[in-house]
Specification:
12 helices, single chain
Length: 345
């Protein structure tokens, strides 16, 4: 449905909106049902428990590799089949047709190979959801480190979302302003971004693994500071230097920082947030991210310089909060310190 809505009727905003809604539903199922199926099969086949983490680690790497290859394959499919030209644009339908074929093969495989779940899954309970949100908000208000983590993640992910929406129009504007410049296909640019993001993930793991015990100037804390500052500087340079080549190079650096951001923020979430509050703690930054993104995109979308400057400001504010106020202490450290203070009294 996503590929048909997105490719067949791409000239209509309503169809694009419906396509994104369908994509959101599919993405949610992928990150819930598929992972539950993988865990169930892992337990059914009797594999050791420590293999599960390795399985998801390999899955992440394979998904990044396939995403990088998809850009090249998509460009090939786009070149093989194009729709009829009109006065505005050429409607490439090769990529949507290829997506339909892949999704159809995936649906057949799931229907034939996956075992049907005959158990009754728990239903969504509004009272339980409201209770979890209330508990999380109380924890955020009472725990300063958790509040700062929510602010940092909201600011950073707002800039990531804005850039993900805006990089294609930004580069298209730069290419049109340069008469002699030749643009790279968007599929190749997207593949380069995915490779850079995957490389940033690996670099973070290499940097943080030997000194994971030091939360301040080194290890994950130091890497997180470098990522936030590097992203802010890259966005600022993108706002200043408006040429296609520099824009592509700066975007690669931004993607490197994005690749390192996700494991670093995951590390701090695992250290600061209680396990029973992690799901709802993830929901709060997402809501704030959507609000900030909608406000910025709707107000200054006409100016690439202002858009990138706002991303630099968001990441700069996140870097300031992380460097100045966050000390990297875990929940257990804070509770032990509170117990020691009570014992002194």
């Amino acid at each position: 449905m996503f590929s048909m809505l997105f490719g067949g009727t791409a000239q209509h905003y309503e169809m694009l909106l419906m396509g994104r809604i369908v994509y959101g539903c599919a993405s949610s199922l992928h990150h819930t049902s598929f992972e539950a199926y993988a865990v169930h099969q892992h337990a059914t086949l009797g594999f050791p428990d420590d293999w599960l983490q390795q399985t998801f680690s390999h899955l992440t790497h394979c998904m990044a590799l396939m995403a990088a290859l998809s850009g090249v394959v998509g460009q090939m499919a786009s070149n093989l089949y194009k729709g009829e030209e009109d006065s505005v644009t050429v409607k490439d339908v090769g990529c949507p047709i290829l997506c339909c074929v892949l999704f159809l093969c995936t649906a057949v495989f799931i229907g034939v190979m996956w075992e049907k779940d005959t158990t009754h899954a728990p239903r969504f309970m509004l009272s339980s959801f409201v209770s979890n949100i209330s508990t999380t908000l109380s924890a955020v208000r009472s725990n300063r480190q958790m509040l700062l983590l929510v602010l940092v993640s909201s600011l950073c992910e707002s800039s990531i979302t804005i850039f993900s929406y805006y990089w294609a129009p930004w580069m298209a504007t730069l290419v049109q302003s340069e008469e002699d410049s030749q643009a790279l296909p968007y599929e190749v640019i997207f593949s380069s971004f995915i490779v850079a993001s995957m490389l940033g993930n690996y670099l973070f793991q290499l940097h943080s693994a030997p000194t994971a015990a030091s939360p301040g100037g080194g290890g994950p804390g130091g890497a997180f500071q470098a990522i936030l500052l590097g992203s802010s500087v890259s966005y600022f340079l993108g706002a200043v230097f408006q040429t296609p080549l520099l824009a592509f190079a700066i975007s690669i650096v931004v993607q490197l920082c994005m690749g390192g951001y996700w494991p670093s923020i995951g590390y701090f979430r695992g250290k600061i947030v209680l396990p029973e509050l992690r799901n709802t703690t993830l929901a709060i930054p997402r809501v704030l991210t959507l609000l900030v993104t909608m406000a910025i995109l709707s107000s200054i979308h006409h100016s690439p310089m202002m858009m990138l400057a706002s991303c630099a400001l968001l990441n700069g504010a996140a870097a300031y909060i992380q460097i100045t106020y966050m000390d990297g202490r875990s929940i257990s450290d804070v509770e032990m310190e509170d117990d020691d203070d009570d014992a002194d009294f």
